[in-house]
Amino acid sequence: MEITTNEYNIKYDEQTATICWQGIMRLNHKEYEPIGELLEHVASLDLPRITLNLQQLTALNSSGVTLLGKFIFDLNRKKTVEVVMLGDDQIAWQKKSVKNFRRLMPKIQFEWK
Asked: Which domains, from first to last, does the chain contain?
């Protein structure tokens, strides 16, 4: 599964259970709907581990952070999935949002580039 535009790309790799996010995402709530559907599909697979690779996602607005937070919260409620988030500590929004994601899923693992 993949969603590609001129500004961003989100790709789900079934072999590694990794969702890779790249580019700049400053969308309105409605524009995030296809991405929400992709995330809901991945959540429904009941995988033991999901990796969120955000290392090349340079900008994400509050609507996007909310969508990602909801995804993480929903996975935490399952209690059966391990989530690993790959980030870049040089990207301000990622460094700022990490503490909030940990509140939503205390066991989330972060790996910084």
From this structure: 2-112 (3.30.750.24)
